[in-house]
């Protein structure tokens, strides 16, 4: 896509949790707020969205809504993306899609700017670029430096995923359940279908015939595509935890070549978009509350897996804001990569969550 000083954006799903983060990021990173068009379903048309430094009115999505748009961010679910992305592309826009609708399409790049920017090198658009799943993004930010240094034979991932991954409605229900508990009222379970507060449950996505839920399968397939390497053996277990935003992941690795622990730390710590939080003496390690509102993925609990050969096996634990690097920030970094106005691989400025 040719560089431009005044790109025009559209956000489809502007009233959702990721949509709000997209607005904040575009404004906070110096894009013209007057050139951001807000789109949603007809039932949300006319709503006013007010964010720091931005005020706009939501329009109902239609084919004409993408006219003169350079980049359209989609964050309204796979069905909406499948329906409207072709129309946006036909109107001349590049779609950066946050759903799973096009991720495994061989013709659609699946991009984490710090990891595989070459996937969109020379992009001329229009077309579709897919934003990976949040769990995939966070995991690969932490472990790709080790793949580059020593190779990875096997990766075992256990995720602890926040309500934000399911959207604003589940976040609101978790907060409501806290109020229900404090007041002694019956649990509100319209969204989760269960008591979510004080509970942990298998990720709320369909389970396939092999017993894996969709989140687990996405992590495996997407990692292979982003790395362009399907020889790495990967298994995942994904669960939902009662946290508002910021996912955590425990990862066990088997490297292909031995690597000293100091070198492992150096490789992770020098990667863009990653911060090591690993103070054994003080007991300070990654936590969702520390990661919420931050651009960097926090990585800690880095230690040798003594059940494997020396220098081959390692464990680590991470926390990353699902709404930022796991979704909106990664999408905006892709846009910056296309526009040529920022070095997305070095875009590590901290973004503070609104009060």
Walk me through what this model shows.
The chain is an alpha/beta fold and 355 residues long. The protein folds into two domains: 9-131 and 325-346, Rossmann fold; 136-162 and 200-322, Dihydrodipicolinate Reductase, domain 2 (2-Layer Sandwich), CATH 3.30.360. It is 28% helix and 22% strand. It is built from eight helices and 15 strands. The chain has a seven-stranded mixed beta sheet with strand order 10-11-9-12-15-14-13. A six-stranded parallel beta sheet has the order 5-2-1-6-7-8, with helices on both faces. β13 (274-276), α7 and β14 (297-304) form a beta-alpha-beta unit. The longest helix has 17 residues, at 134-150. The radius of gyration is 20 Å and the shape is globular. Mean pLDDT is 93; it is low at 344-355.
Entry summary:
The chain is α/β, with parallel strands linked by helices and 355 residues long. Helix content is 28%, strand content 22%. It has two domains: 9-131 and 325-346, NAD(P)-binding Rossmann-like Domain (Rossmann fold, 3-Layer(aba) Sandwich), CATH 3.40.50.720; 136-162 and 200-322, Dihydrodipicolinate Reductase, domain 2 (2-Layer Sandwich), CATH 3.30.360.10.
Q: Main traits of this protein?
A:
355 residues, alpha/beta, Rossmann fold, Dihydrodipicolinate Reductase, domain 2, 2 domains, seven-stranded mixed sheet, six-stranded parallel sheet, globular, disordered C terminus
Q: Topology of this structure?
A:
Blueprint: E1 9-12, H1 17-28, E2 36-40, E3 48-51, E4 54-57, E5 59-60, E6 71-74, H2 78-90, E7 94-97, E8 127-130, H3 134-150, E9 152-161, H4 168-183, E10 201-202, H5 214-227, E11 233-240, E12 247-255, H6 261-269, E13 274-276, H7 288-291, E14 297-304, E15 313-320, H8 324-339
Parallel strand pairs: 1-2, 1-6, 2-5, 6-7, 7-8, 9-11, 13-14
Antiparallel strand pairs: 3-4, 9-12, 10-11, 12-15, 14-15
Helix pairs in contact: 1-8, 3-5, 3-8
């Amino acid at each position: 896509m040719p560089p431009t000083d005044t790109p025009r954006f559209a956000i489809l799903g502007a009233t959702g949790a990721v949509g709000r983060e997209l607005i904040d990021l575009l404004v906070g990173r110096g894009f013209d707020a007057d050139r951001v068009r807000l789109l949603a379903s007809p039932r949300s048309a006319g709503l006013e969205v007010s964010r720091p430094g931005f005020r706009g009115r939501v329009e109902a999505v239609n084919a004409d809504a993408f006219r003169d748009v350079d980049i359209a961010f989609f964050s309204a679910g796979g069905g909406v993306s499948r329906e409207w992305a072709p129309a946006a592309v036909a109107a001349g826009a590049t779609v950066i899609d946050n759903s799973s609708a096009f991720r495994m399409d061989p013709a659609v790049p699946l991009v984490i700017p710090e990891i595989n920017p070459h996937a969109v090198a020379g992009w001329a658009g229009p077309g579709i670029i897919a934003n990976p799943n949040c769990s995939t993004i966070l995991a690969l930010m932490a472990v790709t430096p080790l793949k580059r240094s020593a190779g990875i034979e096997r990766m075992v991932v256990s995720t602890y995923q926040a309500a934000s991954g399911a959207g604003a409605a589940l976040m609101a229900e978790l907060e409501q359940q806290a109020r229900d508990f404090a007041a002694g009222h019956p649990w509100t379970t319209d969204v989760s279908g269960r008591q979510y507060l004080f509970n942990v449950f298998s990720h709320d996505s369909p389970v396939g015939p092999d017993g894996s839920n969709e989140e687990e399968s996405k992590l495996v397939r997407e990692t292979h595509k982003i790395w362009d390497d399907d020889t790495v053996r990967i298994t995942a277990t994904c669960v939902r935890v009662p946290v508002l935003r910021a996912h955590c992941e425990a990862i066990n690795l088997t490297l292909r070549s031995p690597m000293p622990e100091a070198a492992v730390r150096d490789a992770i710590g020098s990667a863009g978009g990653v911060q090591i939080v690993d103070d054994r003496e003080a007991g300070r390690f990654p936590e969702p509350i520390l990661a919420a509102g931050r651009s960097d993925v926090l990585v800690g609990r880095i230690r040798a897996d003594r059940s494997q050969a020396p220098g081959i096996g390692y464990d680590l634990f991470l926390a990353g804001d699902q709404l930022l690097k796991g979704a909106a920030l990664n999408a905006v970094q892709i846009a910056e990569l296309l526009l040529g106005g920022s070095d997305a691989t070095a875009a590590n400025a901290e973004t503070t969550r609104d009060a």
